Amino acid sequence: TDAVFIKELPSEYTVSGIRDFDVMAHAESPLGQELKNLQYDGSGPDTLVVTATVPADSDKFALNLVKNSGSLEDIMFHFSPRQFERGGRLIINNKVNGIWGRDQRTDIHMLPKMFGLGRVHYAFQINHDGFRMSANGCLVHFFEHRIEPPEPGSSIHVQVPPFDDYEHPQPWNIHSLWWGPASSLEGVPNVLPMIPINRAPAMECKDGFITGMPKVSGEEVKHQEAQLAQLFAGSGAIKVSVIPDKGYGFVEFTSPTDLRAAIQKYNGVLFQEERLRLIISRSSGAKR
Known about the structure:
19 strands; globular; 288 residues; disordered C terminus; single chain; 7-stranded antiparallel sheet
């Protein structure tokens, strides 16, 4: 449960004063929190864990990591999941002197679920080479430093803007912030995979991403979902979802072991005269 999860986090690194912070209710005084004594060698804090709830009808939400408190002109790392924009996508970017860089985009349907799930645990690990981001223990993205990284021992700041640049609301509820060394989270479930970016992702997740199906819409979506459910019957699949007009969807399994076995069994099988591809439902973290 969420209560167990929060209790298991080493309490000495919990950021005090941040509890059930409704971003839109505090729009006139947005959250800006100093994170002290950044270290890259494991001797001190290098990981921010944000435990939060995002409403099911939220269009987007965002988080920034910056060097200087209060600055919106220079952003080291901008994290912005967008549920409805062009079918749903994650935007990662930076900003220098008020100018956004070239954003990195990932189809949100290839990532762990983030909207309407209750509490999700977002982890942001800062290394010499960049930022590694995960949700509920599943690797989401890697973003290389585009500006000089902070010096060891320095402070950085987390910002939670209630509105985007066009004054569109970005609602979510932050239950707690945690700032400490990644090593102290070892053994705590559903927080960090934090594997090296050039290795195959660990199999913590239970959601599979399927692609290669014919694109369908309307009532054909339910028909295709039923056919896929029949295909995966007996494999531990508990839910199949097809995204209309996209040619891909998702299969939720009862355990990571069932997902692993299904990938071995169903990858490349013929379905409606097309070859299916089944992978873990998250980004690979490759450069884009």
